[in-house]
Amino acid sequence: MAKSATKDMTVGSPMKLILQFCIPLFFGMLFQQFYNMMDTMIVGKFLGVHALAAVGTTGSINFMIIGFCMGVCNGFAIPVAQKFGAGDYHLLRKFVANSVWLSVAFAAVTTVTVCILCRQILQWMNTPTDIIDGAYSYIFVIFLGIPVIYLYNLTSAIIRSLGDSKSPLVFLIISSVLNIILDLVMILVFRMGVAGAAWATVISQGISGVGCLLYMMKRFEILKITRDEWKLERDCVGTLCNMGIPMGLQYSITAIGSVILQTAVNTLGSMSVAAVTAGSKVSMFFCCPFDAMGSTMATYAGQNVGAGKLNRVSKGMKSCCLLGLIYAIIACVVLVLFGSDISMLFLDAGETEILKNAGLFLAVNSAFYFPLALVNIVRFTIQGLGFSRLAILAGVAEMFARSIVALGFVPVFGYAAACFASPMAWIFADLFLIPAYCYVIRKLEKVLGKKQVEEFA
């Protein structure tokens, strides 16, 4: 095994390990959001507000489908992290091999299904007629790229499960630079419109995925899979599906609430859609640390529960929550003071009303960033501990909250109500996740036994 390539998170200071793992992961997500922002900036600046709204109105359906793909891949990596922590490398390789076969099947079925239905879905969402063609051109290409989304997310998740969060960062940086270049070429040179921005994203992510795959095959001796280990096994497939499908459904169920909310926002007109789009893009950029903390805790919890060290899971949870609180306060101050100014990355200074609404969106959302930090940290810790099905219920709570706002408040109070949809969803999710975490820890203590837990202390 290549010792330098893997990272054992079952020994050492939890805070130090979490920071070491989280920082490269944060920069990777930051670059990912950066090139997503560049897509939006280039579309908004060179193609106009209607093109910006067209891309923005696909955000919720994009998250529902692509989020499922990402969740499945992250779930497949949890048994890998657990077996790495337990030192069972033979079974680890079986899980990796079976996750490859499952990903191929999932990618094929998902791609065909959503490409056939995507225009119909946009119509169901009451997408404004002046932007629906642009929205379809963009999201259809993104959905065609689902196989490369599986490729990148599965390979990077497996690499992270072995304790290496730095290598995927390198490939994302390369991908980000390439994506920006392709955006400009596709839109300004080839005049492909919003579809060009989508092709730039798919091509760049495909290159990142191939890079991760080649690196993983060359670097990790632990992943030299034998012919026998490549065979599909019912037990492995069952375990992977029990982890991956609930995590994927958690993203999708959460996104259903976003789709319902987007449908309500669409009825307010394309200018409101543009304001939410600009605000959401800025917010996602600032929320990268929370995503990184969540992914870190999934690997950290997975390795430590595999080694039977539940006490370290609780210590890591407290350390990560402290980091989340500190960052949430800083981000809130910045966005309350400068949210409208930052939104000018996507909009012209003359769009004063849209900028004002984008600033309102950012001020309201950032005030609730610590509940969002808890959603990511607690949910991914629970998933890393092997209880992915509970994440579905957290997703249901988020969906329920967003749906209440979309159906009950947006028609009455308009745009201002839409700004409170995500904060309401985060609070509802926390009300479920925090008691769920306590339940999971108590159950694992009984399963592992108090004596075993103390021996690992």
Shape: globular
Sketch the topology as an H/E string, one letter per element: HHHHHHHHHHHHHHHHHH
- Residues in helix, %: over 70%
SS-based class: mainly alpha
Q: Please count the helical segments.
A: 18
Taking pLDDT < 50 over at least 5 consecutive residues as the criterion, the unreliable ranges are 451-457
Query: What's the total count of β strands?
Result: 0
Distance between the termini: 26 Å
Q: Evaluate the radius of gyration.
A: 21 Å
Q: What fraction of residues sit in β-strands? A: under 5%
The biggest beta sheet, please?
none
Overall mean pLDDT stands at 88
Number of domains: 1
Explain this structure to me?
- The protein is an all-alpha fold.
- The chain has one domain (24-455).
- It is built from 18 helices and no strands.
- Helix 6 (146-161) runs parallel beside helix 8.
- The longest helix is centred in the N-terminal third of the chain and has 36 residues, at 89-124.
- The two termini are 26 Å apart.
Structure keywords:
18 helices, 457 residues, 0% strand, mainly alpha
Short description:
With 457 residues, this protein is mostly helical.
What layout of secondary structure does this protein have?
Layout: H1 14-47, H2 49-56, H3 59-86, H4 89-124, H5 132-144, H6 146-161, H7 167-189, H8 193-219, H9 234-266, H10 270-286, H11 288-306, H12 310-343, H13 352-366, H14 369-384, H15 389-413, H16 415-419, H17 421-448, H18 450-455
Helix pairs in contact: 1-2, 1-7, 1-8, 1-10, 1-11, 2-5, 2-10, 3-4, 3-6, 3-9, 3-11, 4-5, 4-6, 4-9, 5-8, 6-8, 7-8, 9-15, 10-12, 10-13, 11-12, 11-14, 12-13, 12-14, 14-15, 14-17, 15-17
